[in-house]
Amino acid sequence: MKEAQQQVAIVTGASRGIGAAVAQRLAEDGYKVAVNYASNAIEAEKTVAALRAAGHAALAVRADISRPDEVRALFDTTERELGKVDVLVNNAGILNTVPVAEASDELFARSFAINVQGSFNTLREAAQRLNPGGRIVNFSTTVLALRLPGYAIYSATKAAVEALTGVFAKELRGRQIRVNAVAPGPVATELFLDGKTPEQIAQFAQMAPLERLGEPRDIASVVSFLAGPDAGWVNGQVLRVNGGLA
User: Fold this and answer.
1) Is 37 a known active-site residue?
2) Which of 31, 37, 151, 154 is catalytic?
3) Structural domains of the chain sorted by starting position, each given as residue range(s) with its CATH number in brackets
4) pLDDT digit string (tens) for 26-62?
5) For 59-103, how does the pLDDT look when each residue is reduced to its tens digit (9 = 90+)?
6) Band of the pLDDT at 4, cuts 50, 70, 90?
7) pLDDT of residue 193
8) CA distance 158 to 87
């Protein structure tokens, strides 16, 4: 994109892992990118530094997306520093695996606060702030289809995100804003690998017909597609990116 035509993207939870890969891919696609983070300022600044070193426009913006006031500030800062927002990628989320019978009230509340309330907060703000013709990409999970023990609360939060995605796409009629979601399978990130034995990792890698874990760039490529012009007729959909796992 030429400078005058550069569009702006916000990627939540983009300090590392899938979020950082998405931020990098969108920057390569020509977007100015706001790298959102909640607490890991060092990693967020590293991501931004790498983008700037490659000649891209980027900045790190701290915001806890579970707090509406901080989400408003995220959009305020992005608009002031980069311009009005065209793309929102709702990547931020938390994952704690525990059987329902053993789950605490705090874990349940925190999971819904980040994964559901956080997505709701950014979607509500985007409804007022996104440019006409904007794009929103939410994050669900392939775990929903697998019904794995220990993932009930996480799955419940992502089921809510899928519901928000389909309805919100229809509520934005007349704005030419597309709203979709990606549902990754197991991806080789620090978050996924942490606490797992080599045997467990190998087992997850063999579950999909393609016999490997996903890589952050696999997910980033699909987000790039949904944010780009080639997905101009894709709206209100959930795209499962899992190597055929489910």
Assistant:
1) no
2) 154
3) 3-241 (3.40.50.720)
4) 999 999 999 999 999 999 999 999 999 999 999 999 9
5) 999 999 999 999 999 999 999 999 999 999 999 999 989 999 999
6) low
7) 84
8) 20
